[in-house]
Amino acid sequence: MLHFDDPGLRENPYPAYRMLREWAPLWRAPPVGPLLLPTGESEAGPPWLLSPHAEVGAVLRDSRFGHDNIGQLDADALAEPVYQWLTRTMLFLDPPAHTRLRGLVVRAFTARRVEALRDRIAAIVDALIDTVIDRGEMDLVADFAHKLPVIVICDMLGVPEADRHYFLHETIVRGRVLDPVPLTRQEFDEANASVAELDAYFAKLFTYRREHPGDDLTTALLAAREADDRLSDEEVLSNIGLLFAAGHETTSNLIGNGMLALHRHPAELARLRADLSLVPNAVEELLRYDSPVQLTGRRALEDVDILGQTIRQGEEVILLLGGANHDPAAYAGDPDTLDVARPGVRAISFGGGIHHCLGAQLARIEGAIAFRRLLERLPALRLAEPDRVEWKPTITLRGPKTLRAVW
């Protein structure tokens, strides 16, 4: 049985994914056990788990599946502020509400706007390296991988420099709230407190930006209209919070997971150091090899047949993105090995369809610049204990809590 709350699964989920893919590519969790929706099984019963790359990709693009999993929660769960917050985000909305919100936010993530951030991202990366280079060591997560995407998203949201210290030293709305395992009362209290702090800060920022508009996403969302329909402050609050939480966590995990994978495969690290033109391809391979997002959920809006079985309307399907990324049917060679020059690699780590991650290209650019500059400026960098890693306590968003690096 697959236990999503098993620490061993967080340490290395890929053998379990391989077992499922080979023996039960579409598997329904038993009605009693540790594998649950956020507050237990819905009325539709336990969720299905899907792991082959082709079928996972098809479901992500299939309009017969929705993302409104929150709507399946019971009244007690919906009374929790963190879930009330999530119900107003694009992540858990289906069309037409999703279409309306995403259409307004996507303007900040056009290819042109994201490409224009390259110089700024490079400057941030160099500044972060400057602060640690003379020390000869750093926590690669806390001192670098966490701070880079936080500063970038603060820039995009127009968060004043004086206010950034809070975001730079705290993880906002942790990924545990997205896990298919119930939160403890303590975890609910912590998540609710984080949401309250986030909302309180951005409410103040809204007031400031209404009086001092700028060329930033917060100002744009506050002024946004679509068919004369102005966004409510609650909608803006929740979706800015989502962009902040998702925007920094995925990139931070990409850098942490990627540097760990490279140091566990020294021949591939040496290969990349010797040919930095491989960096863009390496980023895609690192996304595939150890995905920062391991799974996502969908709900059947009608009966759908998959792999000879029928997913009934209302039933949940957990898509194992991490497992799909290791499917030998989709990737040449052995997908359980790291190959920074793997041909034709394109990870499924950022989802697909209408819920494809808005910041996917931004995360790829941040990762590429970060890996290149770390390799160029800290050529002697090595991880102190690459085989002893404490992972964040979540299976949905995968990344190390800390990585001590020395040079």
How is the secondary structure organized here?
Elements: H1 7-11, H2 14-23, E1 26-28, E2 48-50, H3 53-61, E3 65-66, H4 75-78, H5 81-87, H6 97-105, H7 111-115, H8 118-132, E4 137-139, H9 140-145, H10 147-157, H11 164-169, H12 185-211, H13 217-223, E5 225-226, E6 229-230, H14 233-264, H15 266-274, H16 279-289, E7 295-300, E8 304-306, E9 309-311, E10 316-320, H17 321-324, H18 360-377, E11 382-383, E12 404-406
Helix pairs in contact: 8-10, 8-18, 10-14, 12-14, 14-16, 14-18, 16-18
Write up what this structure looks like.
The protein is of the alpha+beta class and 407 residues long. It has a single domain (7-406), classed as Orthogonal Bundle (Cytochrome p450). The protein has 18 helices and twelve strands. The protein has a five-stranded mixed β-sheet with strand order 1-2-10-7-3, with helices on both faces. Helix 8 crosses helix 18 (360-377) and helix 16 (279-289) crosses helix 18 (360-377).
